[in-house]
Amino acid sequence: MAYGFRGAVLSAAVALAYVGGTAAQDIKLPATITLTSYETGANAFNQAVAVGQMLKSKYGTDLRVLPAGNDVARLGPLRAGRAQASSMGVGVYYAQEGVLEFATKEWGPQGLQLMLSATTCSGQALAVAKDLGNTPIKDMKGKRMGWVVGSPAVNQSLLGLIAFGGLTKNDVKLVDYSSYGAMMKGLVNNEVDIVFASTISGQAKEAENSPRGIAWPPMPASDTAGWERVQKLAPYFYPHKSTCGAGYGKGETIEVAVYPYPIFMAYASQPTDLVYGLTKAMIVNYDSYKDAVVGVDGLEAKRQNQKWIVPYHPGAVRALKEAGVWTDEGQKNNDTLIARQKVLADAWAAYLKTNPADDKDAFRKGWMEARRTALTKAGQPVGFDE
User: Fold this and answer.
1) What is the domain range of residue 152?
2) Are the C-beta atoms of 26 and 284 separated by less than 8 Å?
3) β-bridge partners, 195
4) What does the pLDDT look like over 329-365, one tens digit per residue?
């Protein structure tokens, strides 16, 4: 069965179970909202809990947070109608594009849209052992790089980041790990030299306190050729001046890579009023939760990156307009991205009608060719190059 852009549908019980917020804010929310997220203890999970505490306090709404270990598991409940939203990472982009783990007959491109995403003082960046010295990325040939088996999002990020220095996976020594946590332990244990991490993660802090230390090779925005190489492989990254994280000196600013994290999102098919109410509640009550956990301050309305690569849901756009932060440039980008999702949906439907091979590799190869052809014909960037 082809799913394409099929979104989750609110059950009648949830749709009718609205309780009112304050009349002045005109916020209406269901008695219960179910949201998927990363595992318990992850920053995305902690931020979701902080938002949930606000919703309970202000509106009496229970936010049920379901932890899941990967992007497919996070999106499954939304697609099946058992959850209304998710607090995700960059997997939202892979799902939109129908690539990597979503380049399968069971999935394909998904119509996902944003509510709010967090951008704060931290970076999502290439990390190296500090004992390497002040080595630029271009000079890391022959160094050991972590590689998480079964985690294409992590691995694609690594390939994109080392491309800043003109390197490919053939220029480094790949060291396989069964999990992300194991890879980060590998940095501490002198098994690898290069990893991908959030500058404010617990694993980065552990590495900072180890004998090897941790450092973040600069990726200045002025190196346009380097950033073109990054975004060819991992277009969700963009330059960022980061001021906080493990291994930073007092008052230090490092030019690194970043993408929004976490990303509160829903399927395009979710009711506009529901997404509007949830987004509006997060905006107008920002001061009540902004200091609850590290990074949640990044959900502030004025920090939203309206030029990113996944569109905002109409309900979120309405809330951002009312907050006075939505721009003409943001609207233009949003319209382009929604058109992109339609191109992908149409290409997926057409590809399935060709009765593609059941073999997973052959299916993926055929879909990626069809995807490239459709996007190129529509004048849209391919945006992902395997």
Assistant:
1) 124-258
2) no
3) 127
4) 999 999 999 999 999 999 999 999 999 999 999 999 9
Give CA separation, 30 vs 35, 115, 185, 265, 285, in Å: 13, 17, 42, 17, 17
How many Å apart are CA 117 and CA 80, to the nearest integer? 23
* CA triple 170-176-181, angle to 5 deg: 125
Structure tokens at 10: 């609110």
Among 226, 258, 290, identify where a domain stops.
Answer: 258
Contact, 153 vs 91, CB < 8 A? Answer: yes
Provide the sign of the torsion angle of the four alpha carbons 170, 172, 174, 179, taken in this order: negative
Same domain, 251 and 303: no
Pick from 350, 330, 344, 352: nearest CA to 372: 344
Look up residue 298 and give its two tokens: 């990044």
The residue with greater pLDDT, 253 or 1, is: 253
**CATH label of the domain that carries residue 171:** 3.40.190.10
Which residues lie closer than 8 Å to 332 by C-beta, 6 or more apart? Answer: none
Contact call for residues 179 and 125 (beta carbons, < 8 A): no
Q: What digits encode the pLDDT tens for the residues 136-192? A: 999 999 999 999 887 777 899 999 999 999 999 999 999 999 888 899 999 999 999
* Cβ-based neighbours of 155, under 8 Å, separated by 6 or more: 147, 148
Residues constituting the chain: 386
Residues 188 and 162 in one domain: yes
